[in-house]
Amino acid sequence: MRANSRISVQRVLLLIVILPAVSMLLNGSSVSAQETDGSAELEQAFQQKIDATSSRDLDKVVKLCEAAIKKGLDEGNLVQAQQLASSVLFQQADQLGKKIFATGAQDPRWRIYRSQALGKLQKAVKYSPKMGDAFLLIAKLNALPGGDKKQSKVAIEKAVELAGDDREALSAALFYRATIAEDDEAQLSDLNQAIKINPENMDAVRVRGLYYIRKQEPQKALKDLGKWLESDEPNADNYNLVAQQLMMTGEKFDDVMQQEAIQILDKAIEIDSKNPATMVMRARVNLMGENLEEAVKDTSRAIELDPKNIEALLLRGSTLSELERYSDALSDINKAIGISPTFGAFQLRSMIYSQQQDFEKAIADIALLLNSDPENSMFLRQIAILFNANDEPSKAIKIYERLLKQDPKGSWDNKGGAEKIGIMQRRAASLRGLGDAHLSTGEHGKAVKDFQEALELGVKIQGLEVEGDVEEPSRLDDGVLNNLAWVLATSPDDNVRDGKLAVEYATQAAELTEFKEAHILSTLASGYAEVGDFENAIKYIQDAIELNKVAGEEAVDKTRTDSQRESLGKEFESYKQKKPWRELQNVEKEKEDSKAESDSKDEDKDEDKDEDKKGGL
């Protein structure tokens, strides 16, 4: 059986106090002999170790050991000197290592500490080549940023080799080798072995749980992470960490896992009922489960505990907006902005203004963000969408043209799979928005060109995803299909219309939305009307009217459904008369005319008031 390679505290004390005296007796050492070899320095080293109170004192111990070795020692004393020096060097390196791992990059001197620690460790393993703990620490220090990765791998293999039959040491070495493994299979193998050898190695149990999180296996993860939680004193932060990690399992974070996470967070609250972070996290889980009222309660409690908790204010504001309690939502968002005007807060407030159809204010918030970051594509895309919604398509066109310049045709060539798809998706989204804007300005030829390129990109993206074996390839954009079909069916321009293609695209859009969207069925009806099939045109427009009726009954704000119902009715009358529908929009002109009419009415009212006043005089 291979001997234990590690030097325990008890063994060091034994070396310090007993062995020197025994050695002197056994060897018959005399004062005259000590004068000619390093025995005196070695005795001083042991005494210095007993008296040491600082790192400098320990440095003296090592120097005395080195002096003793240099002068010369018999075999027994040489071993003692080497072991004392190596144990002191490791002790110093370990203290430096604890400083590094406790504070990380927070201490700007950590790189200096690492250099000092590695220097001491190299000496330690020179004197004691079988010191497994020293090799393990060398591996850990070199694995940090800027370290020698090759040396880290060499050192960890040495630590595993030297652990021998020491199950605790071997488990620790295997665990660390797992943490730096580049191969998933090798990592799991080492973690399994580390836990099998030492089931009490909770570091390995915890990391294996996190491994299963990364592999989207929440049930296995929960088993390990639950065991880790139960192994120590109850700690709310640990429970929060587990719940947070479970939330990262994506689609696997189903109703069952959500309930598990809630129970974990309930336990965290039981341990520490005044931790707002736990309340916020439970609110997030409740949101994922669409338990909006519970999410509001949790965020409200978090805000009670910490009135300036921006995360809680923003989360409650977002939840309240989903509940259509817009005034309360804006109150929370404005408080958060007053505490810290973050980009996210302005974006959220813009979204709420948009939900209220207050596009001017929504645009003002995004414009404010663009002042800070004029080329931010996300902000540009948001403001372009808002310009379209606010019947300002000319402004939207300018923004979308800027976005298309950021992602020009062919810019995805020679790019990797995910990056390539990302660029194509961004361009397709810009083309969709540009097409909508051109449709609103009555530029139908341009709109068709935009929509067709967006559709072609969508088909190519699907092909790349299938080729890349993506589990759930993206579907075609039913909005692009619908709007393209609409303009092909209803444009007054004979050179633009194509009824056959309109029916084809509208059918695809209807299939994607399971024939449950009134505006898409309206488009399908217009396509059939264009090809002269008024029987199908009437069928689908009637279906659209029925869907609109149901939506209107369920809607809180009936403005949109009322407007749609009026348009559907006009289309229905047209098809009954066997007339295709024609539409040419210019929303900016219509908006301008409406404003002029409104201003004229206001002037008339003012004149009437003036006349009334004159009559009174």
CATH topology of the domain at 201-273: Serine Threonine Protein Phosphatase 5, Tetratricopeptide repeat
* Overall geometry: elongated
Helical content, roughly?
A: over 70%
Radius of gyration: 37 Å
Low-confidence residue ranges = 1-34, 613-617
How many strands, what sense, and barrel or not for the largest sheet?
none
- The total of beta strands comes to 0
Q: Regarding CATH, which class of the domain at 201-273?
A: Mainly Alpha
State mean pLDDT (0 to 100 scale): 90
**Class by SSE composition:** mainly alpha
Distance, first to last CA: 120 Å
CATH architecture of the domain at 201-273, by name, is: Alpha Horseshoe
The fraction of residues in strands falls at under 5%
Q: What is the count of DSSP helices, taking H or I runs of 4+ residues?
A: 31
Can you lay out the helices and strands and say which pair or pack?
Blueprint: H1 9-17, H2 19-27, H3 31-36, H4 39-51, H5 55-71, H6 75-103, H7 110-127, H8 132-143, H9 149-163, H10 167-179, H11 184-197, H12 202-214, H13 218-230, H14 236-246, H15 255-271, H16 276-288, H17 292-305, H18 310-322, H19 326-339, H20 343-355, H21 359-372, H22 377-389, H23 393-406, H24 417-440, H25 444-467, H26 478-490, H27 499-512, H28 518-530, H29 534-554, H30 559-576, H31 587-616
Helix pairs in contact: 4-5, 4-6, 5-6, 6-7, 6-8, 7-8, 8-9, 9-10, 10-11, 11-12, 12-13, 13-14, 14-15, 15-16, 16-17, 16-18, 17-18, 18-19, 18-20, 19-20, 20-21, 21-22, 22-23, 22-24, 23-24, 24-25, 24-26, 25-26, 26-27, 26-28, 27-28, 28-29, 28-30, 29-30
